[in-house]
Amino acid sequence: MAKAFISSIDPEQLPQRYRRGRAGVAFARSWVSNPLRVGAISPSSRRLARLITSEVTTASAPVLELGPGTGVFTRALLGRGLREDQLILVESDPRFARLLERDYPDAWVVPLDAARLKQVNIVDGEPVGAVVSGLPLLSMSMRDRIAILKFAFRHLRPGGSYYQFTYGLRCPVPRPVLERMGLKAARMGSTWLNAPPATVYRIRKRRISGLNGVPSRMQVALGDIVEADFSPKTMVYDGKSAMSDYANSPSRP
Q: What string of DSSP letters covers 45-59?
């Protein structure tokens, strides 16, 4: 009965002054329809939003947000001084996408699945300075996680960062996968007042050893060459170094 009641409510019919109420109803309806895709029992807290956006500044514009959902991180990005028209919001859930278009009319809302956009360019002009992800990576296949990272780093400018939160105890992308893709992750912090508690990681392009003095832009390009040879079918997840596996690969250039 509760499921039928939640499904019967249209969040878009609630008045603008009930923005949070509309967001809560939209979240509940999406969770009832597909809990794995939503990946949480409630919207992210404002503490988590402040943590995941804490390094983003106006110099990061434009900013790409993946899986904004009800817009908790979006509001935090605006609080960091960014304008709506400097935000690109990729949201696959049609309920959330409609809510975002209504609440942030000047932002660019892309109603598509980030895991299916590996070869799609959605940024026509300047590359983005940061990617903020609210996607539930732990509930996704490893292939989809890899596709999302490839999509994100194809749109990031040199020196840009990808920010991901997780409810797990470790980074949701295993270290061998990150190494093989030329990436590295650093833990930024945790918030225990989120439901459930969450941790935020910063993922960046890894500087290639032995290239001291080589411009960072060229190092990024060389890192892309390593990434291009990556195939999830060849990965192992037992702690073995992915880069040593790459060095012994017959397909290595």
A: PHHHHHHHTTT--GG
8-37 pLDDT per residue, tens: 445 455 445 444 545 445 444 543 454 544
The reply to whether omega before 250 is within 30° of 0 (cis) is no
* Region at 41 (left for phi over 0; alpha for psi -120 to 50; beta for the rest): alpha
- SS3 annotation, 64-131: EEECCCCCHHHHHHHHCCCCHHHEEEECCCHHHHHHHHHHCCCCEEECCCHHHCCCCCCCCCCCEEEE
Biggest alpha carbon distance in the chain? 65
Residue position matching structure tokens 């609630």: 14
Residue 86 burial (CB count, 10 A): 19
**Residue-wise burial string across 112-129, b where 16 or more C-beta atoms lie within 10 A, e elsewhere:** ebbbebeeeebeeeeebb
The CA distance from 104 to 84, in Å, is: 7
List the chain domain ranges.
2-247
- For tokens 């997840």, the residue is 237
Centre a 10 Å sphere on the Cβ of residue 12 and count the other Cβ atoms it contains.
11
Specify whether the CB–CB gap between 51 and 188 falls below 8 A: yes
Instruction: Say if strands 108-110 and 87-90 run parallel, antiparallel, or are unpaired.
Output: parallel
CA 74, 164, 202, 252 torsion-angle sign: negative
Distance CA 117, CA 121 (A): 8
The answer on pLDDT for 252 being more than 50 is no
Amino acid 36: pLDDT = 44
Q: Which fold has domain 2-247?
A: Rossmann fold (3.40.50)
